[in-house]
Write a structure and sequence with these properties.
alpha+beta, 4 helices, seven-stranded mixed β-sheet
Length: 213
């Protein structure tokens, strides 16, 4: 079966999280039933925290700081906010290999390739999910992954820290990890969200190929 490329959608402004979550669920159900196309949806959210299915309440350091939403994805607490590019990845994995581990690894390599285009040398860390850069004090996380796969359709996705307010991450222990969080701006890079979108678009085909390679 020859699959068409996913629809590539970029939403302007700040997208309300509950509305985005509801829309993802509708699209995922449509992909499953054959009434919707696969989709890569790029957006920003207003400042908020999300709790994954493994979230530990002790890692929500400042629960009154921003709204907290149950996300339904895997993982623990994460932050979303302005200056962070979120890409929701809704794919039919029944037609793309049926391998969740390979899917997550393909997302990591997608992020690494896109960051390389933006002048950032990033890498994975064995046993952890996400993408890190090496800083003078040790590794710092620059991109996160949190996905859900339901009846072989994926939703949720990835985030890249372009120029968010890094102090906003201090209300949680991000993903339950001790490593600090960084951004392209903090590393001295002046890339925009549009630059990140273009880099992700350039490497999308390679990411999809990795799902079945």
């Amino acid at each position: 079966m020859i699959l068409l490329p996913p629809v590539w959608e970029v939403s302007p402004g700040l997208v309300d999280y509950p509305a985005a979550l509801a829309r993802m669920q509708v699209i995922a159900a449509g992909i499953r039933s054959g009434t919707e196309s696969e989709r890569i949806w790029l957006l920003e959210h207003p400042p908020l925290y999300t709790a994954g299915t493994s979230a530990d309440p002790s890692e929500l350091v400042d629960p009154a700081r921003f709204p907290v939403f149950d996300a339904g994805r895997g993982g623990r607490y994460t932050y979303h906010g302005p200056g962070q590019r979120v890409a929701y990845v809704m794919l039919d994995l029944a037609e793309r290999g049926r391998d969740v581990r390979r899917f997550v690894a393909a997302l990591e390599q997608w992020l690494i390739a896109a960051l390389a285009d933006l002048g950032i040398c990033a890498r994975t860390i064995s046993g952890k999910i996400g993408v890190w850069v090496d800083c003078p004090g040790g590794p710092a996380k620059i991109a996160a992954i949190g996905v859900r796969v339901q009846r072989w359709v994926s939703f949720h996705g990835v985030s890249i820290n372009i120029c968010p307010e890094l102090s906003d991450f201090t209300g949680i222990i991000p993903c339950g990890l001790a490593e600090p969080v960084t951004s392209l701006a903090a590393l001295g890079h002046k890339a925009t969200l549009a630059d990140a979108d273009a880099a992700l678009a350039r490497h999308l085909s390679a990411m999809l190929t990795r799902l079945v390679a």
